[in-house]
């Protein structure tokens, strides 16, 4: 390509991210100033002023002069010469991620990077931090929509992730799975569902459908914050409160008790590490595949390192006992929630790195190995239904369960794995058998309570230990199994 790159060519990844931050901050400040003026009764922005309300664009050009470098890395790779482009939001918050992607692309491939204003306006709700700024002037949403950019669903989609994007000779290739408008849309939804600022989300995510796991996580987190040598330094609570290292126990417990988690559909807790870039998030996603898809659609834009499902399941084999674990190696997807986006005949592979780490963590936490561990930890297929009362149609489902050789049944695991595969987020599932519906051991209130008290703490500890193992193997974790042949360069 002979045409010049748009905007400013950057001589380093750091300079590129600095330029993105400067352009984004200028656009947000200009739009906020116009909003403040209009709400106070002043003039709306004219066309020239609105031209400043735009996301920055990041453009990468690769014109190889020889064979591409050899790398086993699954991301930050270039396969086709040409221009790549995406719009960027919140570059300061995503700085570490952006640098991780740009450094190998510039150093190893010799790609040229430029930053410029894009032609995509920033919708006005996305420049408001508190969410209640508009209430001051009593200005209607209709009035704002006449003069300020608004979110347009036609501009928000997963065409790149779902393989629906179509190459055109005259247009650049996508640089990332999600553009700025798609990311901003999900960042605001995350705050709505979880009750926490999206900036507090950590890259290691536990997903559960039982509040008891949340209670155990909080107890463990408070113990960590009380340990002088712990790597963790802050626990963020639903509603915006936090417990910090060194806080006295009575005050910490009061903060946890006062957190209004009941207000939020999928409350989340975030345990930060002192390095500021790692840590663990746990989200109670509730019950069912619809919730599982909803939250992971939004979590994916933060580009987490891994999400794990830790929840309960019905054991389908006579040899299983209440409290045994199921490590999913495959999924029979009867959830139906993703059939149009990822048809059931598309295999969702187990990720070796996650599977091995889960098994190693289970051995370490339980203290069992060999045959003893195999008696408690069974690998196999999990069937995920969209109908909690699937037992009432067992006559129709019996053959499919038999043919799949499924060993457990739940409602979320298949969806979460399929979403991880679809949106390129490493995933895994470790379930605990809470009942055996085919063998007369149904979940009754008394037995369920005893089971919960005994099993949840150990199960949670296995999930946390798995993340400790995976932290040391990030390059391998972001597997090539998740990448398409025409994958965008950014992870």
Automatic annotation (TrEMBL):
The record's Pfam families line, in alphabetical order, gives:
AMNp_N, PNP_UDP_1
Q: Which Enzyme Commission number(s) are on file for it?
A: 3.2.2.4
Which molecular function GO terms apply here? AMP nucleosidase activity
Q: Which GO terms describe its biological process?
A: AMP salvage; nucleoside metabolic process
**Top-level enzyme category:** hydrolase
Q: Which UniProt keywords apply?
A: Glycosidase, Hydrolase
Domain (Nucleoside phosphorylase): residue spans on this chain: 272-458
Q: Which domain of life is it from?
A: Bacteria
GO CC terms for this protein? cytosol
Its UniProt entry gives the catalysed reaction(s) as: AMP + H2O = D-ribose 5-phosphate + adenine
Q: Where is the AMP nucleoside phosphorylase N-terminal domain?
A: 15-171
Biological function? Catalyzes the hydrolysis of the N-glycosidic bond of AMP to form adenine and ribose 5-phosphate. Involved in regulation of AMP concentrations.
UniProt record similarity statement:
Belongs to the AMP nucleosidase family.
What is the official name of this protein in its record? AMP nucleosidase
């Amino acid at each position: 390509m002979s045409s010049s790159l748009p905007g400013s060519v950057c001589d380093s990844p750091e300079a590129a991210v600095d330029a993105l931050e400067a352009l984004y901050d200028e656009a947000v400040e200009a739009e906020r100033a116009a909003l403040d003026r209009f709400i106070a009764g002043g003039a709306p922005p004219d066309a020239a002023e609105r031209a400043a309300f735009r996301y920055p664009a990041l453009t990468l050009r690769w014109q190889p002069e020889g064979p591409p470098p050899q790398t086993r890395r699954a991301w930050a790779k270039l396969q086709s010469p040409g221009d790549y482009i995406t719009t960027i939001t919140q570059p300061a918050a995503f700085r570490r991620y952006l640098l991780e992607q740009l450094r190998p692309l510039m150093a190893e491939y010799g790609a040229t990077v430029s930053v410029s204003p894009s032609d995509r306006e920033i919708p006005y709700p996305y420049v408001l931090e508190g969410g209640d700024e508009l209430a001051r002037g009593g200005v209607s949403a209709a009035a704002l929509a006449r003069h300020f950019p608004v979110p347009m669903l036609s501009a928000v989609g997963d065409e790149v992730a779902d393989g629906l994007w179509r190459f055109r000779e005259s247009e650049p290739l996508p640089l990332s799975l999600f553009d700025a408008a798609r990311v901003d849309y999900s960042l605001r939804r995350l705050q709505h569902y979880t009750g926490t600022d999206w900036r507090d989300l950590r890259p290691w995510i536990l997903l559960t459908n039982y509040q008891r796991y949340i209670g155990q996580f909080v107890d463990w987190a408070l113990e960590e914050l009380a340990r002088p040598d712990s790597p963790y330094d802050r626990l963020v609570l639903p509603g915006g409160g936090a417990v910090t290292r060194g806080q006295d126990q009575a005050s910490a417990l009061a903060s946890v008790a006062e957190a209004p988690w009941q207000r939020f559909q999928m409350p989340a807790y975030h345990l930060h590490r002192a390095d500021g870039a790692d840590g663990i998030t746990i989200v109670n996603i509730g019950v069912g595949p619809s919730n599982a898809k909803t939250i992971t659609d939004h979590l994916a834009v933060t580009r987490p390192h891994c999400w794990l499902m830790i929840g309960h399941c019905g054991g389908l084999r006579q040899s299983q006992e209440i409290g045994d674990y199921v490590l999913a190696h495959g999924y029979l997807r009867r959830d139906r929630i993703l059939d149009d986006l990822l048809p059931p005949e598309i295999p969702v592979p187990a990720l070796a790195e996650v599977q091995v780490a889960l098994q190693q963590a289970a051995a370490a936490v339980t203290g069992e190995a060999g045959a003893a561990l195999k008696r408690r930890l069974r690998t196999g297929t999990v069937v995920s239904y969209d109908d909690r009362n699937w037992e009432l149609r067992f006559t129709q489902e019996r053959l499919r369960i038999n043919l799949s050789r499924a060993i457990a049944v739940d409602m979320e695991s298949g969806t979460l794995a399929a979403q991880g595969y679809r949106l390129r987020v490493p995933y895994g599932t470790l379930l605990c058998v809470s009942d055996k519906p085919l063998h007369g051991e149904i979940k009754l209130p008394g037995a369920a309570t005893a089971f919960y008290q005994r099993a949840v703490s150990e199960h949670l500890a296995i999930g946390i230990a798995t993340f400790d193992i995976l932290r040391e193997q990030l390059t391998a974790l972001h597997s090539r199994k998740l990448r398409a042949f025409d994958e965008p360069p950014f992870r």
